[in-house]
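PROTEIN DESIGN WORKSHEET
SECTION A - STRUCTURE
LENGTH: 265
TOKENS:
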């Protein structure tokens, strides 16, 4: 079954996906072309309310554990392994179904992370790619689903993307706090057209792990709550490089990233 694009459910909610996770072909085409796509109405309003309450509660209890010490945002990783309510979001079958349609292959969970930008934080997240940070080999595709749990207009720090950059591989990891880092590595990217996707609560974007992206600072009075689920090719193996997710696991190079830590979707 395929849903028609931009199906209107009510005055406030536009859905590009049905309850089983089917999306129209034009969204798959957009993702393949641009390396990024917005899917509106992924979560129902009742789901948004439940998951936002869980996210706020977890944030308050764990924000001192943030991996980001520069104050750009609160970053908490693998929250699904620590909170049963948030596990339901990370493992959400509707989102996973869309991810596999876009990727065109079986996927596993790589990790999730909660990214909270406090009100008036005055710190953008500058353009970067995700994949250079990850200790992966033998992988054909990986992508992130960026889930808005509150309305995220540009002034609250929504995402902007460099379409077509999913084909640019081989760069070193970039510094999210350095505005010129990605452009220093690939100066031609500065002149690419950019796509900005404002999101209503319950909307998502999917972007490939090589698609350049950034988010502005949060200039509003409300915290920006985003939950990101990261998917990888089910055949992905460990390349031996350090990473916060794999460091405690005692893996050897070329070990497959599978099992309960990296479940199939």
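SECTION B - SEQUENCE
RESIDUE ASSIGNMENT:
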């Amino acid at each position: 079954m395929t849903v028609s694009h931009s199906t209107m459910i009510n005055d406030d909610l536009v859905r590009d996906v049905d309850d089983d996770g089917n999306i129209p072909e034009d969204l798959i085409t957009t993702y393949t072309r641009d390396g990024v796509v917005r899917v509106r109405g992924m979560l129902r309003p009742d789901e948004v309310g439940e998951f936002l309450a869980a996210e706020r509660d977890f944030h308050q209890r764990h924000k001192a554990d943030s991996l980001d010490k520069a104050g750009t945002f609160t970053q908490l990783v693998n929250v699904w392994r620590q909170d049963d309510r948030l596990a339901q979001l990370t493992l959400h079958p509707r989102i996973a179904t869309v991810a596999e349609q876009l990727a065109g292959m079986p996927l596993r969970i790589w990790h999730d992370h909660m990214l909270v930008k406090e009100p008036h934080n005055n710190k953008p997240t500058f353009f970067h790619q995700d994949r250079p940070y990850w200790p992966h080999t033998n992988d054909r595709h990986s992508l992130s689903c960026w889930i808005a749990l509150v309305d995220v207009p540009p002034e609250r720090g929504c995402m902007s993307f460099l379409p077509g950059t999913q084909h640019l591989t081989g760069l070193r990891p970039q510094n999210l706090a350095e505005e010129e880092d990605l452009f220093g590595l690939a100066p031609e990217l500065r002149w690419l057209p950019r796509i900005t996707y404002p999101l209503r609560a319950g909307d998502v974007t999917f972007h490939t792990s090589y698609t350049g992206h950034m988010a502005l600072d949060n200039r509003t009075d409300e915290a920006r709550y985003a939950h990101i689920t990261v998917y990888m090719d089910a055949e992905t193996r460990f390349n031996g490089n350090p990473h916060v997710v794999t460091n405690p696991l005692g893996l050897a190079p070329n070990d497959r990233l599978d099992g309960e830590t990296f479940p199939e979707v």
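SECTION C - NOTES
The mean pLDDT is 93.
The two ends are 20 Å apart (CA to CA).
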